[in-house]
Amino acid sequence: MNIPVNLFMWVLACLPIIVLLVLMIRFQWGATDAAPIGLAITVFTGIVFYKADLKVIVSEGSKGIWNALTILIIVWTAVLLYQVGNETHAFLVIRDGMRKLLPNELLLILAMGWIFESFLQGITGFGVPVAVGAPLLIGIGVKPMWAVIIPLLGQSWGNTFGTLAAAWDALGMSAGLTTGSREYLVTALWAAVFIWVWNLIIGVTICWFYGKGKAIRKGILAVALISVIQGGGELLLTQVNTTIACFVPACISLIIILMLGRLPAFRNEWNVKESQIMERKTAAQEDGEKPEGMTLVQAFVPYFLLSVIALVVLLVEPVHTFLGRIQIGFSFPETVTGYGYVNEAVESFSPLSPFTHASMFLLISSLAGMIYYRKKGWIKKGGIGRIFIRAVSMTMPSGMAIIGLVIMSKIMAGTGQTEVLANGIANVLGKVYVILSPFIGLLGSFMTGSNMSSNILFAGFQSTTANLLHVDPSIVLGAQTAGGSIGSAISPSNIILGTTTANILGSEGKVLKKIIVITVPAAVVIGVLVFALTSL
Amino acid sequence: MEEQKFFRTRAGRLTIAFCVIMAAFVLMLTGLHSDNSMLYSVGFVMTAAAMLYSPIEVHIYQRLKKSKK
């Protein structure tokens, strides 16, 4: 490529992201309104300054729409699953049932906001834990904004090895790591080490949000134990089987937290009265709407189904192979910008396997849940129609934002803006660049909404830069994907999923403002760690 | 009646915008495959218009409406 990497071009490549952040944080615009502005700037700079013709823009834009669609069908079906629970008021049963099992409110928040999300991230991912977790937390009395923030943090550590290690596989593929090779295992080890640091930060942060120092003192041992199981378990399993490295520890932690609730330290009712995240009155007012005779197990029926279907389809190899035969994908021609930046032709771009896709598991669980609850009489006449109408109304605004953001990231990548952005950082900073390696992963997740896409975008670049600077690429790649995991907590498309199901759409800026002060310092900590390790 | 009401809401109008993008997607794909620049240009304009509907409505049209009142 002949794109000049200078300050002017670098600032232009940054511009859409800066504008997006300013509109959302400073001016409190919702992502539905901010994303099209960022996209318009990307198209303008792409055509005028990066010499892309309309064919490049249209081709990358179409790829973006296709990628957005594969995300949106997860959003729609996740919201459909949520609406099934909403129509039957199953969340009130879950709230009361979990309260009985975990009378300690801090432990309850950790279970519903961190552990359950980790479990969902282990199998589904793509924002499902945020979409499903937010209404569950509101059900137990958490304020809507915090009910979005906590699952965003809670699910994020599982983004690399979660979804049965989809993002990790993308990293390995993009950086050219051979499965099982020494480089592969060392990179997995470093990635797990950095993610463990982030996992511990998440637990402590949720305690801090709930009740500052008082909650940290009460919950630190539980957090440490859960973190050892999740972070440490993942670290060990990466050396055995990366596919289950997140899912297995997440399942174990779910069992452990319920057992912790039986210990003398946690079995009695305990809460922080003045907790900033709780709105106990609102939750208590809804008691009259509780469905008659519904047990906790019955309230979880769609989620149990979701777990069983996902596990069978993803882990039973013959089933996975058979259902994965049908794939939908479109071919795209080669496009070249005026600077010679080539987007190679593809036969089948990002093929979608509808029967092994998370949206199919969500759809089947939702439909089966509807049939089950209808038979039990918990869905009244006209309820099914209401579920579908509410699901469509709830998802459309977020759908437009997701389309805008994904097209923006595709056009940035396809016109060479992403590469200039990354190259500029490396050229200016030299070896100090390694401190920023997790930031690049974070930036990728922020832009694309996915750790996997971040790894596809930047793993090759990070590996090449590390080799140029004579530092261990395994450490830098580990930091890349750990940064990507952290970035999934601030990705606008993930935030929108939460604000949609929490019914506070338009508050994305406020949510982002609260989380960014946790994620950026966490990336700094990992960056400094990477610098220290590569300087040894 | 219900349908008419839905399409008058913000979610309803965004649903229309989404449908426009889907139609534009088909035009752009067809245009790229057949190397028909007219077809994919129309698709591009449709996508741009549908994407910009929300910020224009919320931050320009409604503000102008308020200031007129």
Automatic annotation (TrEMBL), chain A:
Domain of life: Bacteria
Pfam family, one: Lactate_perm
Transmembrane feature ranges: 7-29, 35-52, 64-85, 105-138, 145-168, 188-210, 242-261, 296-316, 355-375, 387-408, 428-447, 515-534
Location in or out of the cell: Cell membrane
Keywords in alphabetical order: Cell membrane, Membrane, Transmembrane, Transmembrane helix, Transport
Membrane-topology annotation of the record: Multi-pass membrane protein
Family: Belongs to the lactate permease family.
Function statement: Uptake of L-lactate across the membrane. Can also transport D-lactate and glycolate.
Protein's UniProt name: L-lactate permease
Source organism per UniProt: Drancourtella massiliensis
From TrEMBL, chain B:
Assigned keywords, A-Z: Membrane, Transmembrane, Transmembrane helix
Sequence intervals crossing the membrane: 12-32, 38-61
Keyword Membrane: yes
Full protein name: Uncharacterized protein
Taxon lineage: Bacteria, Bacillati, Bacillota, Clostridia, Eubacteriales
